[in-house]
Amino acid sequence: MSRPLDAQMAFLQEADRLKSVLRATTLGNGSRRENSGEHSWHIALYALILGDHAGPGVDPSRVIRMLLIHDLVEIDAGDAPIFGDQDAAALAAEEDAAAQRIFGMLPEAQGAELLALWREFEAAESPDAVFAKSLDRLQPPMQNLASGGGSWIEYNVSPETFEARVGSKIKRGAPGIWDWAWPRFKAWFDQRAKTGG
Amino acid sequence: MSRPLDAQMAFLQEADRLKSVLRATTLGNGSRRENSGEHSWHIALYALILGDHAGPGVDPSRVIRMLLIHDLVEIDAGDAPIFGDQDAAALAAEEDAAAQRIFGMLPEAQGAELLALWREFEAAESPDAVFAKSLDRLQPPMQNLASGGGSWIEYNVSPETFEARVGSKIKRGAPGIWDWAWPRFKAWFDQRAKTGG
Questions:
Q1: B43-52 tens-digit pLDDT
Q2: What is the DSSP letter of B54?
Q3: Can you give the C-alpha Rg of chain B in angstroms?
Q4: Which of A103, A167, A175, B81, CA to CA, is 20 to 30 A from B195?
Q5: Where are the domains of chain B?
Q6: Contacts of A3 in chain B (CB under 8 A)
Q7: Which of B18, B39, B42 would best serve as a mutation to test chain A binding (most A beta carbons within 10 A)?
Q8: Closest approach of chain B CAs to the CA of A138, in angstroms?
């Protein structure tokens, strides 16, 4: 007879594969690309530390849960760099299929609950999801600042592209954090423009 | 004037260094050692998935917070392999000094709260800490099972040493999970004894 623990432990072992999915951003010291497992830890820690900057109606513990599972679909669908040129609709379909397969490994009620939580994150409409998305957008540019440019250089990103794809999402969920961060990001882009990079 | 976000973002960038601390256990596919950042994500996910197996009085959200921060001290003190021969008292002192430095980077009230949470985990007395410790002990042998032996082989671990240093801790905080896991671990040790490993 199959027991809940059989399914739960198989899911947790499957999740281990996320540590092998590489992202466009690097560690702060620039030594290597970071993987989606350690990234997921880092932004869950962002949520733990920055919860007080969330808007009304946000439950930081729920945001942490959301962020712990938000990238699991990349086990099947891979990481789509924010400055890349993927087909958004095709990627969304691929990620939803991945979510159904991966959360479908769990006992039925638990799998359904986490699939719903993941879809809520993706939809980016609820207060929790909007805040979670803003943290997911905030961590990569902070890594870029620390490493001296990172994916901004690799993808030759303009400040306009950065504001449209990243800044707007940070501002929406965490305007206070954006006010703190934007002058720092802008200083990097201004410096790069000055040196003709 | 220093603002909370200055301190919080400096702390989050310091935390990034945990991704460069390597552990004795490997990824499930055995391809490389895992680092303490991705390990922290994995066991926070263990807590999210296995919360229903906790004893009375355990708050899974609090356990997740505990596990997200439990290894940060390794940025200064390094990872002490469970089957290694470290001086426990010296290590405890080194880790407590690390906790004071690292959580001391945060705004005062927040730093004090997380230092207390970390010390609660280390003391392993409260229901939350006992459950968190059991998950922290459970994940490495699950990795070893997946990879075909891992640190059990590297440290030539006997089933008696495993039960004393690891099994007893898993059993204390999560007896139901231990009942599920022990026959699987035992089968590995039995097989190794049979093949003279």
A1: 999 999 999 9
A2: S
A3: 17
A4: B81
A5: 3-195
A6: 180
A7: B42
A8: 11
At A128 the pLDDT is: 98
Place of tokens 């552990």: B23
CB contact under 8 A, A13 and B68: no
Which has the minimum average pLDDT: A79-83, B10-14, B68-72? A79-83
The shortest CB-CB distance from B41 to any of A3, A11, A44 is to A44
- Cα–Cα dist A160/B188, whole Å: 57
pLDDT of residue A1: 47
* Chain A residues closer than 8 Å to B41 by CB: 37-38, 40-41, 44, 68
Q: A3-195 falls under which CATH superfamily?
A: Hypothetical protein af1432 (1.10.3210.10)
pLDDT of residue A197: 57
Judged by a CB distance cut-off of 8 A, whether residue B61 touches chain A is: yes
CB contact under 8 A, B48 and A65: yes
Range B140-151 burial, b when 16+ CB lie within 10 A, else e? bbbbbbbbebbb
Cβ atoms of B129 and B168 within 8 Å: the answer is: no
List the 113-132 stretch of B: residues with Cβ below 8 A of A.
Answer: none
Measured in angstroms, the CA of B98 and the nearest CA of chain A are apart by 18
Closest residue in B to A143 (Cα) is B13
- Per-residue pLDDT tens over the stretch A60-84: 999 999 999 999 999 999 988 888 8
Q: Mean of the pLDDT values across residues B74-96? A: 90
Token look-up 């961590």 returns A139
pTM of the predicted model as reported, rounded to 2 decimal places: 0.96
